[in-house]
Amino acid sequence: MTNLIPELSFREIEKGDSHSINLLKTALSDHGFFSITEHGLSKELVDNCYKSSKAFFDLDYEIKNMYSSVGSKGARGYTPKGIETAVGEKIADQKEFWHHGPVIDDSFDKKIPKNLNIEQVPQFNSNFDQLYDELHKIGSRVLSVIALSLGLDVNYFTAWIEKGNSLLRSIHYPPVESISNPHRARAHEDINLITLLIGAEEGGLEVLNKDGSWIKVEPSSEAIVCNIGDMMQLVTDKKLKSTTHRVIQDPEAEPKSRYSIPFFLHPAPSINLKSIFRDDDEGILADTFLDQRLKEIKLY
After folding, report:
1. How many distinct structural domains can be found in the chain?
2. Which of 115, 131, 144, 165 is the most buried (most CB within 10 A)?
3. Dihedral through CA 198, CA 202, CA 208, CA 210, nearest 10?
4. Is residue 2 in a domain?
5. Domain residues for 233?
6. pLDDT by residue (tens digit) across 47-102?
7. What CATH number is associated with residue 247?
């Protein structure tokens, strides 16, 4: 099955009219995945970030590993191929990645680490700082319309993410070496509130449908793919579902490197993740929830 993930005009959704909100509600309830166009993100900025990303991953392993994320729970820096492992899986994903967060100051929670500066790629940090800011703004706007779709105030989630622990992940999936394992990222759900993905048009991303089949995500060029994460599923009592997805190598396509950049929108570590519908729910701290999940995927 192909192309069943709804593609919505963000400009139309943000108008907040009943028709647009109903389109969003349907997308969220059917798949937990949708893509947005007319979002305002600069193509030049995206292209610059992909160039910086490729330049980093093209460096020798010994240089990349100087920026190892070991000891930081994978929060910043470089994680090589063969580390991250989906929950319940024994075989690690076939990917290497870099983690980049907000530019922090004293107003941020002390648990949010500083970014590492890649000396060998001069424009990397400035490009990704700008992309982080832009995707944070878009993510905040997406959360606002999701709040409206849930019958909440438009600014319900704003305070959660204003000084949040969000994360930009630059990923390189090397060419698949064996057809016996086409999984570049095995089936998993995201930890965070929502994810924004740029570069999904390159192919390989699939979403698990309600009937157990896998749907290929094939957005139009420059669209941003959005999906619900486990934290949002938790606070909405599963009204919004964190949908299982994976990245595979198409056996009919020529094996080659694949690059993507997801933005994982997280609340601040001190936010209590409790039901937005039930006052008696005690909740769990966002930092505690994140730590539990990082242990499960071997990023600890």
Report:
1. 1
2. 165
3. 80
4. no
5. 7-296
6. 999 999 999 999 999 999 999 876 666 789 999 887 767 677 677 777 899 999 99
7. 2.60.120.330
